[in-house]
Design a protein that fits this description.
With 765 residues, this protein is of the alpha+beta class. It has 4 domains: 209 residues, Beta-galactosidase, Chain A, domain 5 (Distorted Sandwich); 272 residues, Alpha-Beta Barrel (TIM Barrel), CATH 3.20.20; 79 residues, Golgi alpha-mannosidase II (Immunoglobulin-like); 103 residues, Immunoglobulin-like. The protein is built from 9 helices and 47 strands. The strands form 8 sheets. It has a 16-stranded antiparallel beta sheet that branches. A 9-stranded parallel beta sheet has the order 29-28-27-26-22-21-20-31-30. Strands 32-33-34-39-36-37 form a 6-stranded antiparallel beta sheet. α5 packs parallel to α6. The chain is globular and about 95 Å long. The protein starts with 5 loop residues before the first strand and ends in a 10-residue tail after the last strand.
């Protein structure tokens, strides 16, 4: 075994003197048999051989990166016959460290193997809902001993990877019968283990290292568009003209949100005749009389590009001719019958017919030439017409055992089942739609989307409405304010569980639709807007922009333009209080860096919060000026910690600015981030006592910048601003509001200060 901090001999591992596992028995399933490995370990290499199949060799090359073990490996077939591979197991032992901890004190972030996104949560090992088998990697936190353990894989695009930890520890990849050809070799996914004291650091390091290996290419700029849905019922009849509603909202966006970066108008399912997935080369002309190309052209007149929903591996059984044509390209269940992905499809016009007459949806083989050729034809036509945004949905239909629908076989046996079949097809779609097209993927695997998607839905729907048709989810309502899978608390939980991948593998999309208009309570609208504004990801607007209340429209504006960074949960590993409710974003790419802290409260009681500065990475003895965004309130100067009270079912967003002995900007009312996207070139000249900054908003807008001013100064041109004293006994801080009017998109302001000699601290009477 090598020296500390990582000690490893292939069968046992210790990190920083802590035994992670011992007495492991690596094995490979080949040609239907489980073959135990016998190895020769030499420095950083290990050669595993198999007595029953000597032509097969498993070569390991391991390295240590601080407290992390990394094992790269490949399987070599030196024989003249192909070898059918099953599970390839790095670790298999009941002698591992977790049984040494009390299960109630071990929390785990897992990616449920064979589960769906909504199964994800932080669980204690002794919780009934703990999956105890995680895909790709599992992250453990032992808060009582301030220890953290991560086990899994740094890559995930080739095979089914899982980590089981119920009674014994098993770490393996499953090739699901893929054949290693004679005199050839194949790489395996990269195995890794790390042990330390901070689970958040381990998650972030995992994402950094995975991104370094996978090197995904994706658009970091969030896509912002309009969907509607929340209040607009466009399914009143099968012949309703949805095109008119779409274009009227496009016109309203051009008028009311011009300059705010709205690029797309997304049509979901309604463009498909009969709502039948698979019928993508035809158009629902009763709803959209101008057709695909005509709608694109008319949207372009309002500065928007069309986006579409596509379920690429779905085929409605109502498309009888296409079903016959694609019969050999429909995936089969293990029993040989056609795989039915959805037994009752109720979206689009399919939801207008009685339930017993609605279509069933088959699952298509992503590796079959018929499917690939058809999808290429679809996306080429859409691109020629002008479509530049897609939500590729229900990808689990073609993902095999990654999710819930294992299939019997697929066409192209050069590809491993599941991950490689799916990702190779998506790579072709990515190439066909072009680099200037934004792709969001949903309802399927997440990590496998690295490199294929710009953004990935990491949770369930949030902020979306549904049609007011009998049998629809929310009937007879079109929207649910609280208590649904579309509610904010669930979205915030999912955002937390995946925060570490954002901006590294793709954009995390936790809240696809932003809905803020009445009858939502104002505080709920603030919650929705804050989640979106701090997501760093794409957004579709859910409100009817034609008639939206002006005050609620202003809330949308305060979330735009969208930055690319996402807020980080401060309380992720806390089973007793779910979902996480404390989020932090450190704003560094500005003239004067500051911190943003968002505190959510989904309970029916007020919540007192105390956030130590050290938990934000700040000096414990520093003093910060605190401004709250939604109530536009100066909260004072705080030392050591941020203290706050958050009302029931509401949110508070604070800007923490280092206290300076001079006039300084402490907040704005223009954007939830309070400066990052709307202010630049901030500079204070001590010699001339002049504060200068540049502000950017769309022409015609107004806004305010708030300053904290020492009591020894006053503003020379006091008529250009409003100054108030924040009383505290007989003294008070001076709060200044600088009103801005944007006659052009960008304006520069200079504020000149002078010293005052008189006592400004007059006593209260």
């Amino acid at each position: 075994m090598s020296n500390q901090p990582v000690s490893f001999d292939g069968k046992s591992l210790a990190i920083n003197g802590k035994s992670i596992y011992a007495n492991s028995a690596p094995f490979v399933e080949a040609n239907g048999k489980r073959l135990l490995a016998a190895g020769h370990f030499d420095d950083y290499d290990c050669h595993w051989h198999f007595a029953e199949l000597p032509q097969l060799v498993w070569l390991w090359k391991w390295s240590r990166r601080e407290q992390r073990l990394v094992v790269e490996s490949k399987l070599v077939n030196n024989g003249g016959d192909s070898i059918r591979l099953g599970k390839v197991c790095w670790v298999d032992t009941d002698d591992y460290c977790l049984p040494n901890y009390t299960p109630h004190n071990v929390e785990v972030l897992e990616n449920p193997y064979g589960g769906r996104a909504y199964h994800r949560q932080i669980k204690r090992l002794d919780d009934e809902g703990c999956w105890r088998c995680s895909a790709h990697f599992a992250q453990f936190s032992m808060a009582a001993t301030k220890e953290a353990l991560q086990i899994g894989f740094l890559t995930f695009l080739r095979t089914y990877n899982f980590i089981a930890y119920k009674d014994r520890l098993t770490v393996a990849s499953d090739f699901v019968g893929w054949e290693l050809q004679p005199h050839s070799e194949t790489t395996c996914d990269v195995f890794t283990v790390t042990f330390g004291n901070n689970p958040m650091t381990q998650l972030e390091n995992w994402a950094n290292e995975a991104a370094d290996i996978v090197k995904p290419q994706f658009n970091h700029k969030p896509a912002i568009g309009w969907l509607g849905w929340s209040w607009v019922n466009c399914l009143g009849s099968a012949t309703e003209n949805c095109e008119q509603l779409l274009l009227e909202n496009a016109k309203a966006i051009q008028k009311k949100l011009n300059g705010y970066g709205i690029e797309y108008a997304w049509v979901s399912v309604l463009n498909i005749p009969g709502g039948n997935p698979g019928d993508y080369l035809h158009w629902n002309t009763p709803r959209f009389p101008s057709g695909n190309k005509g709608v694109c052209e008319k949207l372009a007149e309002h500065g928007l590009k069309l986006g579409l929903w596509v379920g690429p591996y779905m085929l409605s059984n109502h498309l009888e001719q296409k079903v016959e044509e694609f019969d050999d390209a429909i995936l089969r269940r293990p029993d040989g019958e056609r795989m039915i992905y959805s037994p009752i499809w109720s979206h689009g016009d399919a939801g207008l017919v009685p339930a017993e007459k609605r279509p069933q949806i088959y699952a298509l083989d992503p590796s079959h030439p018929k499917v690939r050729n058809y999808l290429k034809q679809v996306f080429e036509q859409y691109r020629a017409n002008g479509v530049r945004y897609y939500m590729l949905d229900f990808l689990e239909a073609g993902s095999g055992g990654i999710q819930r629908h294992p299939y019997k076989d697929h066409f192209d046996h050069s590809l491993t089942a599941g991950p490689e079949v799916l990702t190779s097809s998506l790579a072709e779609i990515r190439q066909t739609v072009g680099p200037d097209t934004f792709i969001l993927t949903s309802t399927g695997p997440t990590l496998q989307m690295a490199g294929a998607a710009d953004a990935v839905r990491v949770g369930n729907d949030f902020g979306e409405g549904r049609s007011v048709t009998k049998g629809a989810y929310f009937y007879p309502a079109s929207f649910v304010i609280n208590g649904s899978f579309t509610a904010a608390a669930a979205a915030l939980g999912f955002a937390s569980l995946s925060y570490y991948t954002h901006g590294k593998l793709y954009q995390n999309n936790c809240g696809n639709v932003l809905t803020v208009d009445k009858p939502l309570p104002l505080d709920t609208a603030w919650i929705h807007a804050t989640i979106h504004a701090l997501s760093g990801s794409c957004t579709m607007l859910g409100d009817d922009i034609r008639y939206i209340n002006d005050d609620r429209l202003s809330i949308i504006k305060k979330t735009l333009p969208r930055g690319t960074e996402a807020a980080k949960p401060l309380d992720l590993f806390n089973c007793d209080q779910w979902p996480p409710h404390r989020f932090h974003l450190s704003v560094r790419d500005v003239s004067e860096p500051y911190e943003v802290v968002a505190l959510y409260n989904f309970s029916a009681e007020s919540r007192k919060e105390s956030i130590p500065f050290e938990s934000l990475g700040l000096p414990a003895d520093a003093t910060y000026v605190v401004w709250e965004f939604w109530h536009e309130a100066y909260m004072g100067c705080m030392s050591g910690e941020l203290t706050a009270v958050v009302p029931p079912e509401s949110v508070r967003v604070y800007r923490l600015t280092p206290q300076l002995d001079r006039p300084q900007i402490i907040g704005t009312d223009m954007h939830v981030l309070m400066g990052q996207v709307e202010l630049s070139n901030i500079h204070y000249c001590e010699k001339t006592r002049t504060l200068e900054f540049t502000a950017t908003r769309p022409t015609g807008e107004t806004g305010s910048v708030f300053l904290l001013m020492p009591q020894t100064l006053h503003i020379v041109d006091s008529g250009s601003c409003y100054t108030a004293r924040n009383r505290n006994g007989t003294t008070g801080d001076l709060i200044v509001r600088l009103p801005l009017r944007f006659d052009t998109d960008t304006i520069t302001r200079q504020i000149h200060f002078e010293r005052i000699d008189s006592d400004a601290n007059d006593k209260l009477t």
